[in-house]
Amino acid sequence: MATSKTYDGGCHCGDVKFKATLTPALDERTVLSCSICSINGYLMVYPKRKDVAFEDGSDAKLKPYTFATGKLEHLFCPTCGTSVMGRPKDPTAMGGILALNTRTFKDVDVDKLEKKFHNGRDQPLP
């Protein structure tokens, strides 16, 4: 059975904080070729929304950026600019997942994680 682990994460300035439980525990991250993912250096993991808890409603502080079809939001801290996550505007889309940027996880050396490449640049937008 896969083991679970809970990670603390948040933006650079500390205005946005969360705990994310991943099953299995983090051992790889996805490198995406999407235009915004490449520019921001996203290294994503995909937990269910129910497995991510933001402290003190800090997710309400995140500001969205959308492009193309506008169905996906890329959320960042308006104070420090940290790109925290992406999510479909429709919470039931894509199986109810979030795309969390592993670069925002505390005490995780992302350079030691296995890379998994996803060609998002050529994937049709939802």
The parts where pLDDT drops under 50 for at least 5 residues are none
The DSSP helix count reads 1
Global Rg: 14 Å
Give the beta-strand count.
10
Q: Give the helix proportion (percent range).
A: under 10%
Mean pLDDT: 86
Indicate the proportion of strand residues: 35-45%
Task: Please state the overall shape, judged from the principal axes of the Cα atoms.
Answer: globular
Spatial order of the strands forming the largest sheet: 6-7-8-9-4-3-10
Structural class, by secondary structure, is mainly beta
* Helix-strand pattern: EEEHEEEEEEE
Distance between the termini: 32 Å
Query: Sheet bearing the most strands, described?
Result: 7 strands, mixed
Short description:
The protein has about 130 residues and is mainly β.
3D structure, described in words:
The mean pLDDT is 86. By secondary structure, this protein is mainly beta. A 7-stranded mixed β-sheet has the order 6-7-8-9-4-3-10. A 3-stranded antiparallel β-sheet has the order 1-2-5, with no helix packed on it. It contains 1 helix and 10 strands. The longest helix has 6 residues. A hairpin with a 6-residue loop joins strand 6 and strand 7.
Topology:
Layout: E1 5-10, E2 17-22, E3 28-32, H1 35-40, E4 43-45, E5 52-54, E6 63-65, E7 72-76, E8 83-88, E9 99-101, E10 114-118
Parallel strand pairs: 3-10
Antiparallel strand pairs: 1-2, 2-5, 3-4, 4-9, 6-7, 7-8, 8-9
